[in-house]
């Protein structure tokens, strides 16, 4: 029997990813490590910027009614899911990148963006500088308490690690690393999980599809 694939991202993305895996005949462990919630924020005047940079659909999911005041700004998004969330909220998407935030920022700069506003989570990798004029926190991901019996399910599974914070958390939760595999969104996420794993795979691209495909390849 193939190994189960553990989906660790917060809801509602956890359910979406798990369903995609199960539709291909594989077992999943649905165990969100974090719970995402909105954060109060002050909406700036859009006239001070020429674009929005967004690296997660959570910015649109939790940004609230203030987002409407920024609708005149084109969005540069990491990942197709983020771009789709932008469009659902009425934004025009100027560009989508699937190779991380640094590559996206380079694309935006090459296209003429000079003063971007980054709508972000409380924990983030992008810092002010270059074309990123300001960063506003619009959501936060809080750790969920994981019972020992729930953590034990991860031993021997294939874990989808979609952030450095998730990598650090599984490094703390998993007891049997020598028989557990990781599929990580980036080298940084893999490094945060520490060593001792049976196998670590970092597929090209940052899309959920790339991670799922890599996990299913290991399970088959």
TrEMBL record:
Signal peptide: none annotated. InterPro entries: 4pyrrol_syn_uPrphyn_synt_sf (IPR036108), 4pyrrol_synth_uPrphyn_synth (IPR003754). The keyword Lyase applies. The lineage of its organism: Bacteria, Pseudomonadati, Pseudomonadota, Alphaproteobacteria, Sphingomonadales. It holds the Pfam family HEM4. The keyword Lyase applies. Keywords: Lyase. This is Uroporphyrinogen-III synthase.
